[in-house]
Amino acid sequence: MMRKVVSVLAVALLGAVMIVAVAEMPAFGGKGPAFYQACAHYLENGARETGAVNLVTGIAMDYRAYDTFGILMVLYAGMTAVAAILHSHRNRRDKNE
After folding, report:
1. Where are the domains of the chain?
2. Helix or strand or coil: residue 96?
3. What is the pLDDT of residue 30?
4. What pTM was estimated for this model as a whole?
5. Which of 4, 35, 61, 89 could be cross-linked to 31 through a Cys-Cys bond (beta carbons 3.0 to 4.6 Å apart)?
6. CA-CA distance, 39 to 28, in Å (whole number)?
């Protein structure tokens, strides 16, 4: 019973956070303040701050490194979950034979 209550509260909290995040988004097709401020900063200061010859590489590896790392962690977690599911399925099949 307690587990169900905690699960429902967690889902409700996540739903509330998502509703607030969507409400704060700019209009569809519109450019929010992050677009203008980040792009201008990257173009004006990117080469000097990163020291990279290629501005795209400088942005990806210096300004967006945590984002890139986060994407890699999500992919790793997904692969680990699939491997665990397949492994447990294989173990159950072996026990049934």
Report:
1. 15-96
2. helix
3. 74
4. 0.44
5. 35
6. 19
